[in-house]
Automatic annotation (TrEMBL):
This is LysR family transcriptional regulator. Belongs to the LysR transcriptional regulatory family. Keywords: Activator, DNA-binding, Transcription, Transcription regulation. The keyword Methyltransferase does not apply. It comes from the Bacteria. Pfam families: HTH_1 (PF00126), LysR_substrate (PF03466). It comes from Alloalcanivorax balearicus MACL04. InterPro entries: LysR-type_TF_proteobact-type, LysR_HTH_N, LysR_subst-bd, WH-like_DNA-bd_sf, WH_DNA-bd_sf. Gene3D superfamilies: Periplasmic binding protein-like II (3.40.190.10), Winged helix-like DNA-binding domain superfamily/Winged helix DNA-binding domain (1.10.10.10).
Length: 297
């Protein structure tokens, strides 16, 4: 379809409806009625010859065709909006929105941000932190740095940094722990990934105890609880070298177990801009000195 023939209003109506899962809220965002939105989406479906939504009593559900179209439109409209905003504000920086799990942000990225900004003053890098779960489309992310095994549907995942887990606790408690079996008698602080302690004990050749101790949704909170004497946490020690160096916490045992790594991810449908490629190259270069995995080309 030629550019002059693109049904831009209908495409905007679909994108807003899909993102908000509701015709009424889409109409409010675009300052038109719910009926107008519904008609525009229906006209788009007729023009494309596909069904984009399954209409439900309490909302909308995207069809496979709708899922394929949404990230492309979100990307395009976001880039148009960013370009217009920069022109209106007299700024000519290219925006890159990076989602990043909080542990990596605090433990690795934030101390190095000034270097990136010095090297790339023409890039407006915007960070959004979370606890490893994000909707790349809804959150408007260009890239998302997350922890796991690299298998996320609909995304390209590039390895950044290995992050083996090792026990960490307050120094006074660490001095009481002489062998892994001693952990049977202390609270074991846990994350939402429930098999981590079991895998560590298996690597240590010790029968895992019945878990007891607090559960936390971020490694940063686990660290603070461990430093406060609440128990022993299993943490990616690479991310917490400052706390270890300051003596706030201590590793009672050197044994570490691999349960995943940090990855740079993006939607498969997202074409990388020049600024995105520059950020990716900076990450690759900076991570070489930290034992980082080589980024795939």
């Amino acid at each position: 379809m030629d550019v002059p023939q693109l049904p831009l209003n209908a495409l905007r109506a679909f994108e807003a409806s899909a993102r908000l899962c509701n015709f009424t809220r889409a109409g409010q965002e675009l300052n038109v009625t719910q009926t107008a939105i519904s008609h525009q989406v229906k006209a788009l479906e007729d023009q494309l010859g596909v069904t984009l939504f399954t209409r439900l009593p309490r909302g909308l559900a995207l069809t496979d065709e709708g899922h394929a179209l949404l990230p492309v439109l979100t990307d395009v409209f976001g880039r148009i909006s960013g370009a217009v905003t920069r022109l209106q504000e007299g700024r000519f920086q290219e925006v890159v929105t990076l989602g990043v799990v909080g542990t990596f942000a605090i433990g690795w990225l934030l101390p190095r941000l000034s270097d990136f900004r010095d090297r790339h003053p023409s890039i407006d890098l915007r960070l959004k932190t979370n606890n490893n779960v994000a909707d790349i489309v809804a959150d408007g992310l260009d890239y998302f740095i997350r922890f796991g095994d690299g298998a996320w549907h609909g995304t390209d995942a590039l390895p950044l940094l290995d992050a083996p887990l090792s026990p960490v606790c307050a120094p006074a408690l660490a001095d009481q722990l002489k062998q892994p079996a001693d952990l049977h008698g202390v609270p074991l602080l846990r994350s939402f990934r429930r098999d981590e302690w079991e895998r560590w004990f298996q690597a240590a050749g010790v029968v895992p105890p019945t878990p007891r101790g607090g559960m936390f949704d971020s490694s940063a909170l686990l660290l603070e609880a461990a430093a406060g004497g609440e128990g022993v946490a299993l943490l990616p020690v690479t991310m917490f070298q400052e706390a270890l160096g300051q003596g706030r916490v201590k590793q009672p045992f050197e044994l570490a177990v691999d349960t995943g790594r940090y990855w740079l991810t993006k939607l498969k449908s997202r074409e990388e801009t020049t600024a995105m490629l520059q950020l990716r190259a900076w990450l690759e270069q900076s991570l070489r000195g930290c034992g980082g995995a080589a980024l795939a080309r």
